[in-house]
Structures are given as structure tokens and as C-alpha cells.
Amino acid sequence: MRGLGYDQASTEEWVNPPPEYTMVQKLDIDNFRCFRNVRLAGLTRVNILTGGNASGKTALLEALFLAIGGGSELALRIRQWRGLPADLQVTSISFPQLWRDLFYHFDSSTPILLALVDSEFGSRSLEITYTTSGTYLLPLGGESHPQRTGTLPLTFLYRIRDREPQAIVAELTEQGISLGSIRDPIPGVYISPGIAHSPTSVTRFSDLSKVNREKEVVRALHEEFPEIESLSVEVHFGKSVLYASVSSVPEEKMPVELVSSGISKFLAILLAIAATPKGVVIVDEIENGFHYSHLPSVWKTILDFCSRFDVQMFASTHSMEFLRAAVIELEAHEDQICLLRARKTDGACEVDQVLGHRLEAAVAEGFEVR
Amino acid sequence: MGTAAECLGGFVARRYRGPVYVACEGPGDCEFVRKLLEQYGLTGFDVGCPSDTAGPAGKGGLRRHLEGLVGSTDAPKIRSLAVIADNDDRPEASVKAVKAALSGIGYDVADPPGILVADRRVGVYMIPGIGIPGTLEHLLLEAVFDAHANLRACVDEFCSCTVHPLGWSSNAQAKMRLQTLIAAHCEDNPGVPLRWIWAKERKWSGGNPIPIESNRFSELVSFLRQFAS
Fold it and tell me: B1-10 long-range contacts, Cβ below 8 Å, gap at least 24?
């Protein structure tokens, strides 16, 4: 007999897109990491992902980021974010090993298929597969003696509605592994737990500053953390770094990361949203760095920014406080929020979807929802 | 009620194991049902009621409670759902409210309530019985008077000596009468509410006046038995 938790939004129930802006409305995942197949429909402006450890939360966010075309090199970057070594020594023999963990149960004989429906282009999909017929010649070898050798090519095949498919082939060069990019990706930013702030935040701030739009971010940051008076890009030992004027330290500016990891995280999220209009911002473990007393207002500002810049947010969290804060701030706008709860059953990860009004009721009633 | 941030502190989430969830109107009803389950050795039940801090309590909060139940992490563990509610003064309206709450989570319960639907997933029991006005307190009072017949006249006399009670609603009178009886028996805490009378060992004068083994509860026990594992 099935449990009560089954009656969530299903693909069949999903008929009309919600009235509020959402970029990604449906997402299907097949054969990716821990997911054999997952069908998500009726995604909303704010999608909060919960679940126990090793339940597939990060894998879901990775699948989404790959599917929107956020960069197939993510497949490599996420290895680093997950704590694996950054400097890879790849040979033609080990090259296929590099990608095996993308495939469900490491079985690369079945293609990965990530498909979504977005509000701009309609359907789009990404198929990741090894071409098993024949070999693909990749340049290999040391700096002084380049050579070419045969290996199985991994192909990222993007299809956007009825357009000509775009294929990106993983290429091993003397400079390392290179992956191309696609035309017309959905604008997207992925903020991983370990790298809240990054050179890209500096770039985003600079880009906004050039068109006098950084003030919105600075104002929001100051309202939440009044000690931050202004921001600027400064050269820090040869690198561009975001500096803050801090009221309690009038003597000199400080790198934002040195002021507070929570402030740095908040700034990174706001910059990502402001720099990604009509796009998708993905934040893994969003609660990290925030004191609970800031959570409601942090959420309020994030939601305000998402609304102002027409950004859809996917955020994972382990924090009940963060969930409660989200629900408090979204009261009377339950249709703009949904909970995606990842769980592992019999070795495969699944995702339950809880609609906003039920999430709100569960939180109000004090039930566990993570 | 503090600020939103203050309200976040010290939170402990409700968890349950299933496979049966019994939704009641209030904490007193929950405690009574738990005691009944214990008395008759019925296992596999979780019992809960609408939060009294989240909005309307009682039947008014039942829909929110059930919606929250469905949205909770433990929902897949729940294979059967029982709802126990009071008829109050207007049994039809009460049934309608319970049915509306269940409808909110996708269950359309047939008439009359109290009969389990097809796959025994959902059942409704209205206290004190189908179509009979009253509350849990009415049922408990009858059980008390069955066991202690002399007390009925005593309570009636007590009520006649006070200024307002005879003009109160039937529900209010039942609550007052039951609380009076509990107060007169519970030496360690005459003010103990129904929700706490079974929660721990208490010093009763002449024993707990509510006989949990009363035949008055047989129908409710039979209802619960149908969910037992």
C-alpha cells in the first residue's frame, strides 16, 4: 500500500505554467549520477531542495545546470567542488574513467538524458553519451612531444526545440581538457557551498558597476548588514578582489571575504541574481554562513531580487530555520515556492515534490519537511 | 508572538513512524486516543492534532494539519489515516468540515462517516457517534457516570449552585462538568487538563474517574482496531 506522500504534482497534473515567472518549468533526468529517472513538473520561482546526505541534492542541481547549458565543463568543475583534486593527469586510458561517475551506477552504456521545458524556448534537452562506434583522436602527450591517440569521445548533444542540435565533444588537449559552450543557453549561475565568492563575483560586480546598477546590490547588502558601507574592486596582490568599507574599521577597506563569510555569501547570491536576469540561480547549501536572526530578511531580499530580475532560484538546504524563514516570507505567495525532497530508495535516488501550500502547512504544523 | 527571526529558535520538528496516523482535534483528544491504544495493545499508530500556534485549532485547523501531514518528510510512511472529531452541536456541519479537510488532501469520504473507504486508507469517526450531538467530554462523562452513578446527581447539584453553567452551551457544560470531576479526584494537580491526566502517574483520590476500559469506548476501539497492524 502506498504512503500518503505520493499525491504531489505529477507530470500529468501539470497543465498550465504558473502565472509567476519561471524559467525552468519541467525537468526530466535519466541515468544521471544517482538518478535512474526523475520527473519534475510545476517548478516554481523558488524551488527549495532538501534531503539527507547522499540523497542526490547536489546531483539534481548539477543536472539542472548542465541541462540549461550552463557549461558542460561543470562536469569537471563539480569534481573540484566536491573535494576531488583539481589538477588531473588524464591519459587516453583514464579519460573515460573521468566521466563514469556522471552515469547512473557508472554504466556509461546507457546515455544520460536531461530534458527540460523553459519559458523562452520551450523544450530543450542534453544527451551525454560515449560514441562506441570507432574512436576519436585526441591530442595527447607531453609539452615537447605531442601525439595523438585513440579514445572514446564523450559527447554533450544539446537540442533546443526544433533547432539544429549542438554537439560538444570533450577534448583532451596539451592545455588540459577543454569543452566548448553552446549557443543560447539559459543564463545560469551555480554557487557551490565551498566557493561562495569567486572571481566571477568580482566580474559581476564590475559589469553591474559599469552600467551603474551595482548600487542596488550595495544598498541591499547595507540594509541587511549596516556595517557594510560601500564596495569596490581593488587589486589584491595582483588579483581583482571585492573590498568593503566597514563602518567599524574606518582606517582602511577590507576584502569582503575577510569581513564575514555570511556577508560574502549574501553578496555572491545578490550579484548572481542581478547579473543573471531572466535566468536561473542555483545555490547549493544556501544557509551556510547565515546567523538565524538574518534568515527572514535575507530571504526577503533574495526573493525581492528574484522578482525584480525575473530570476528563478533553486537552492538546497539542510536548515529547518531557513525553510521556515522562506515560508514566512512567501506567505500568501505559496504558488511561488515548492519543495523538492530528495531521498534514496533501494540504491536509487528519487525526488518528491511538495507544493507551496502544503510546505507552508507542514512548516506551520511543525512537521519535519527536510 | 515575537519577530519572525525570534520565532525560529528552539524548534523541534514532529516526527512519526506510521503506518497509521490518527488526526484528532486537540491535545486532550490525542491523549485519550493514545491511552485507548495503549489499553487495548494497538500498535503502529501515531496521534496528532492541529497546532494551536499555527492558526485555528480544532476542526478549523484540521485541513491545515492534514495538508501539512501530506507535505511532511514522513508522509510516505503513513499507509492509513484515521480522523476522529467531535460532532459538537451540529453533527452535519461537523462532518462536512471533516470531509472538506480530507478532500483537501484528495480523499472524498463517503457518507455516512465512520465507515472506512475502499482500501482502508481513510476513516472518520465522529464522537460521540454518527448523528449524535456532543463531544469527547460528553462521551467521557457518560463513562464516568456509568462507573460512578452517584456522581451525576452531585455534579448536577453543583451546577445548580453556580451562577452561569446551566445557561452555558452543552459543549461548555460538558467540559466544565468533566473538569470539575477531574479536579475533585486529582490531588496532586486539581487543575490538570485532560491532555495531561494520563501523561504521567498522578495521585488520584479514589482513582482516575475516567474508566479507560469503559464500554462507552467500544465503538471507537473497534474503529481503531480496523487500522491496527
Answer: B3/A296, B4/A296, B4/A325, B4/A328, B4/A329, B5/A292, B5/A293, B5/A294, B5/A295, B5/A296, B5/A297, B5/A325, B6/A293, B7/A324, B7/A328, B8/A292, B8/A295, B8/A296, B8/A321, B8/A324, B8/A325, B9/A292
- pTM for the whole structure: 0.82
Closest CB to B78 among A4, A324, A365: A4
Whether A358 has its CB under 8 Å from any CB of chain B: the answer is: yes
ipTM of the complex: 0.84
Which chain A residues are within 8 Å of B106, Cβ to Cβ?
Answer: 7
A10 close contact with B: CB closer than 8 A: no
Of A5, A293, A295, the CB nearest to B75: A5
Statement: residue B119 has pLDDT above 60:
no
Q: How would residue A332 be classed by pLDDT, with cut points 50, 70 and 90?
A: confident
Q: How far apart are CA A298 and CA A225, in angstroms?
A: 10
> Would you place residue B109 in the very low, low, confident or very high pLDDT band (cuts 50, 70, 90)?
confident
